[in-house]
Amino acid sequence: MRLEKDIATVEKRIEIRDIDTIDLLGANDTNLQLLKEKCSLDIKVRGNEICLVGEQAEIDFTEKIMGEMISIVLRKGFVDKNDIMTMINLRRVTEPAVIGEIELGSTILFTRTQVIKPRTSGQEEYFKNVMEHDMTFAIGPAGTGKTYLAVAFAVSALKNREVNKIVLTRPAVEAGENLGFLPGDLKEKVDPYLAPLYDALKIMMSHDKVKLYLEQKTIEIVPLAFMRGRTLENAFIILDEAQNTTSVQMQMFLTRMGVNSKVIITGDVTQIDLPKHEKSGLIEASRILKDVDGIGTVLLKETDVLRHRLVKDIIMAYNGENGK
User: Fold this and answer.
1) Contact status, residue 231 vs residue 203, Cβ threshold 8 Å
2) What are 239's strand-pairing partners?
3) How far apart are CA 317 and CA 324, in angstroms?
4) In the chain, which end has fewer C-beta atoms inside a 10 angstrom radius, N or C?
5) Cα(281)–Cα(71) distance, rounded to whole angstroms?
6) How far apart are CA 254 and CA 182, in angstroms?
7) How far is Cα of residue 53 from the mean position of the Cα atoms in its chain?
């Protein structure tokens, strides 16, 4: 007669992004050996992937410790055995809510001030789509993180040398305005349309790094019209505000994709600023390409809005007025 139930062994794989695994695991894997000694599970490392094998509770514990280790590496450039022992001892005797935690599973990007990761079920689906597909359509209302997360994916890919450059583009169509009526040269005319992309970048990277990458053209922020005739290889390409593309513009953009490139196309189909006789290229493309292998689509909703609480209420009120 058995007095104890068998405890299931599970496996979890964690991809370490944005930092060097040597800084995390220590010279000659000293930190790794300490984790193996103090946490009751098997830990295997292949490149930047760490595989945890053991009981679920111990895997959860170790993942939280590793999250805190990453946080320390980002702050001071390394983590040592004393740091790890302090974290382990605190977690063994302290309620988890007392200690700041970083969940590693769906993390997109670590910056000096924050961890960028999905915060809603819709954003979690967004994350999975981007991980699994070379091209993703992210469609939803304002405030759902479509552009912000897309830029985070791109910056992470650049940091991890998965791509050689980032290309961010938008159609220069906004709320009935016309480029010809704006003051200044071409750059001064188009920069206001591209401002949200600059803003997102400056949150995720230092001002000097953004400036350097723009000068080197490692990062390009350009109007959609400038994409014609190009083939973009080894690049992360984002088309923002895609609801304002025409059918011809969307087809042109989609065929810019080269070898080893990844594409995210974002838009809000409730905010189309095209002339009434023009069909939105985003609506058409998402319909035509929905069953193409390698292309994913995520539909974000009002419940995914993470701006001021009034933004969600405003969207819902307008949808109600329009019978949506």
Assistant:
1) no
2) 169, 265
3) 10
4) N
5) 42
6) 29
7) 27
Q: At 292, which amino acid appears? A: V
Residue carrying the six token digits 């001064």 = 188
Query: Which pLDDT score, from 0 to 100, does residue 67 have?
Result: 83
The pLDDT assigned to 303 comes to 83
User: Is residue 136 a contact partner of residue 295, using CB atoms and an 8 Å limit?
Assistant: yes
Residue identified by tokens 């909703």 is 301
pLDDT at 284: 96
User: What integer pLDDT is reported at residue 96 of this predicted model?
Assistant: 44
* Assigned token pair, 201: 């970048």
Closest among 119, 103, 89, 125 to 59, alpha carbons compared: 103
- End-to-end CA gap in the chain: 62
| The pLDDT of residue 321 | 64
Q: pTM score, two decimals?
A: 0.67
Q: Which residues of the chain have pLDDT under 70?
A: 1-7, 75, 90-105, 112-113, 173-193, 307-309, 311-312, 315, 320-324
**CA–CA distance, 305 with 225 (Å, rounded to integer):** 30
How many residues make up the chain in this entry?
A: 324
Alpha carbon dihedral 60, 62, 63, 69, in 10-degree steps, equals: 150
